[in-house]
Amino acid sequence: MLDLLQQLGLALRIPASFVIIEFVGTMAFAISGIRLASSKRFDWFGALIVGMSTAVGGGTIRDLMLGVTPFWLTNSIYIICCVISLLWVVIFGKYLISQKNTWFIFDTIGLALFNVIGIEKTLQMDFPLWTAITMGCVTGAAGGVIRDILINEVPLIFRKEIYAMACIAGGVVYVTCFKAFGMSAELNALFSSITVVVIRLLAVKYQWHLPVLKGDEDKEA
Amino acid sequence: MLDLLQQLGLALRIPASFVIIEFVGTMAFAISGIRLASSKRFDWFGALIVGMSTAVGGGTIRDLMLGVTPFWLTNSIYIICCVISLLWVVIFGKYLISQKNTWFIFDTIGLALFNVIGIEKTLQMDFPLWTAITMGCVTGAAGGVIRDILINEVPLIFRKEIYAMACIAGGVVYVTCFKAFGMSAELNALFSSITVVVIRLLAVKYQWHLPVLKGDEDKEA
Amino acid sequence: MLDLLQQLGLALRIPASFVIIEFVGTMAFAISGIRLASSKRFDWFGALIVGMSTAVGGGTIRDLMLGVTPFWLTNSIYIICCVISLLWVVIFGKYLISQKNTWFIFDTIGLALFNVIGIEKTLQMDFPLWTAITMGCVTGAAGGVIRDILINEVPLIFRKEIYAMACIAGGVVYVTCFKAFGMSAELNALFSSITVVVIRLLAVKYQWHLPVLKGDEDKEA
After folding, report:
1. Global confidence as pTM
2. Disruptive mutation site among A31, A32, A42, A80 for chain C (greatest number of C CBs within 10 Å)
3. DSSP assignment of C156-221, as one string?
């Protein structure tokens, strides 16, 4: 079953549409990092590193935890995507506000795909289902946390955004399709991705937030 | 000798009392993270991640350095402990101040146990004794550093607390018992844990601090 | 060829001069971290950890990514260098300003050597040339980023210093000598190191900076 999944998983990523989504998603993540770096007056190199951390940081943590070589060390396309993103911001910087919705869509589709990639990679290594959901969430959301640490801000996803929760919902859909209904990897990925995209779009449109944890007014824990 | 240690080490963790200490210690660590996150107005998810980082972050760094799969990826009990901790803070938040001493004791006992677990795991992999002491300290103290980075504060243990030093003292006791006196793993663990607990309790009671390093009034290093 | 490189690489590090450079470089890195920690009123332990993170942090990230045990876990000399650095700052703290140029030179030579070590270690594991350049840069520059995260500042190298770029230039020189001219590992290392040192010295003397990335005046990326 896992062998079959593996083959399907490989087949899944061969179609050109998926490769394009991965690269556009990588660029959307990188651009979000580069723009935040620019608001902090980083130089070009600093902005590139923040962009790369945003784009490949989540997958790197996932790969280190799974005990495999970080995916971007053996394929230069990811660094190239990040360099293109830097040039894009340098050249089209003043138009990025008008491109905001476009990049938001790319970012959301990228999130959905990164989540699926993380889930599949973890399942192929015989980890439990809940580990796969966790690693999908790490793949999608941890890059943004590293980005915010590098620019010395409290991580955004801990305070404002429905981002990781969309990944977790997408992960639950994936493993349910996979385990309960025995669906093909393509369909698992499709339903999972739709879940992530729909939840994130609705969350932004209707300003969904998780409840803030009330402090006990005692800061010396 | 190491084989024997390994068997004793495994036996050591079977007794129910040790399992209970590990889970209560995990919860104490998680609650310290969740409370600090709540003082920063994090949402529930953010607080859970900060709690998890505090509880399993040190062991994760240890396992990545030792080249093994992070311990919490194959046993869901650790995430469950963290979720219970979150619910505990949500439900009993206003009583946490009155529970302060209780959780401080659990936190200290947890620290002692995590230190021993880190030392034993490292020794079982044939690393030098000083590496084991270092990894015990990492297991106990690094989670708090990750917590403080995530809430964007200067790590507490670098400025105020005798925390890591208690681990190091406990580690020295462990390897001395192990190497010089050839004592059993249970006794090593017991004496090491007592050392950690006593030093931490005394440090808090008598406000022991390490000396602050005097700056050279030249901040451009 | 790689076998030959490996043998040469091993030979390269045997000469006493190289060992001395590595330890002096480690101390220069550690001292830069310890001084910054002291300006933040860290205690001795905190300062030691920041110093160690600066000195061995880059190589640790490199080793984790390459899938090998962090180099300092099996050889206690690196921790000893960091402890000596701490004592040096404690004892000679008030003279450090007058030693500034000396430690700047040691820091720069250390950077060049760490870069070469990172490149060679990566090439020996059959990674692509660009990965080796990247890992050289990580070895030299990532420790400073961890240092700045621990003291809760925006990483210096993202805003002000020509530091990583010197590593990248040195890396390009290394792989060019290695691949295009088929030179010996000693010569590769020599030319690469000279490149790093010269670029860094010129950058500081003539205050070279990378251009700052202009923000789009929209901070909600």
Report:
1. 0.89
2. A42
3. GGGTT---HHHHHHHHHHHHIIIIIS---HHHHHHHHHHHHHHHHHHHHHTT--PPBPPP-S----
